[in-house]
Each structure stands twice: as C-alpha cells, then as structure tokens.
Amino acid sequence: MRRFVTGSTKETSGVLAIARHPEAYRHLSMQFENREVTKTYHAVVDGLFSFDNQLVDAPILKQNDGTVKISRSGKDAQTYFTTLHSYKSHTLLECKPITGRMHQIRIHLAMLKAPITGDGLYGGKDFYVSSVKRGFNLKKMTDEQPLMRRVALHAFSLEFALLNATKTTIVAPYPKDFQALIRQLEENKR
Questions:
Q1: Exposure string (b/e) for 73-83, b if CB count within 10 Å is 16 or more?
Q2: Is residue 2 part of a domain?
C-alpha cells in the first residue's frame, strides 16, 4: 500500500489511497470502517464565515436523483469545519468528515448556508474573475467562463496507519484551478 495518487474527479480533487494487494486493502478498509483515518478537505465557500472546529451532526438521506438531503431517517453524518482564511466575499475552510457519506461536506455546508463555490447542486455559485477584478475585459464576442468548472473542494490530506503500524500522512497540493481561485481571492481581498 505504498502507492498514493493525487488528481481530480468531476467534483473533487486531491489525495486518494489505493491498496496494491488484498492485505493492504483489508487493513485500510478496517481503518475507514473504525473511523481511524483522518480525512482533511479544503473548500472555498460563498460568503464570510468564522467557524472554529464547528461540528455539524446531521443525518443524510440519499435521493433517487443522485443528490442527498438532511433527514432524520438518513444515516448518521458528522463533519467539523474550521475557517482557514476569509476574503472579500468567500471563505477558505478546513473540513474534517468523521463519517464518509456521499456529498456529506457539500450538504452540511449548504445546511450552514455556506455552499461550496461552484456547487450549483447545493446552492453554490460559479466564480467569475470579473466579480473581483476591476477593469476585467473579455475579448469581443466572448462570454466569460467560470474560473473553475467544478466544485471548489479539495481532498487535502489522509492520515492512516501502514501495515507496519506506522502512521503516515499524505498531502495533495492544490491543483492549478484551485490555486488560481485562491490567487484571485488573495489578490482582490477587500
């Protein structure tokens, strides 16, 4: 289990652990099942928020359309949120899910009225450079495109035990689109 991959899916970029043989797979799977893996995500959200290790404990129910909703009849789901940096109209958050439900971070943030930038499914808005950069001009006869073509959510790190019981932390640097978003927010804060 020494192979680690960073990359992105349609919705989330970041770190991903891949077991190279059945024993490693079982070992890692048991850690996930026993909630012994520390998962850390970074998200840019619409709006200004000050979270200090805020726990959201809200059950999640899968819908037939591929989305989820908060529902008492759903499965338990817990996520901690901490503000890393505030910008003019966005906030960079650290998200630590305890459970691993589909769209968990996305729906928990939507519940807090802090949707992830670019997450149209749960209330987030696309980010356009023109919204923060004065004098931003496009070429004639072109429409401005969002800076990111996905949700601004990045699986930043995973911490777990290797087969020899050594704890390891794998960190994935931000991909280019996430870096570009942060750069625009930094350059145009307040």
A1: ebeebbbbbeb
A2: no
